[in-house]
Structure to design on (83 residues):
């Protein structure tokens, strides 16, 4: 490995899938602003829109996750071409 290119500050971080509310702990150096308490210990919290718990490839189920209104924005933009 090359020296000086990898971060030195790895710590346990809680990743939360906001579509399924699943939380899992992974060693990471991701920057976070929130924390969460799990089994009496505080961990930095990183929120995800899609993880392996909600992605159709891993679950085998098709599910639309539209937290930012992207689907409605797309439909409104291209509605004039369907007439």
């Amino acid at each position: 490995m090359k020296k000086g290119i990898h971060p030195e500050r790895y710590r346990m971080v809680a990743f939360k899938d906001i579509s399924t509310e699943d939380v899992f702990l992974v060693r990471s150096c991701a920057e976070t602003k929130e924390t969460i308490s799990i089994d009496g210990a505080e961990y930095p919290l990183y929120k995800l829109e899609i993880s392996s718990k909600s992605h159709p490839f891993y679950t085998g189920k098709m599910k639309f996750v539209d937290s930012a209104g992207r689907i409605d924005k797309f439909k409104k933009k291209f509605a004039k071409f369907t007439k």
Remarks:
- The helical segments are 56-59, 70-78.
- The mean pLDDT is 80.
- The longest strand covers residues 41-48.
- DSSP finds two helices and four strands in the chain.
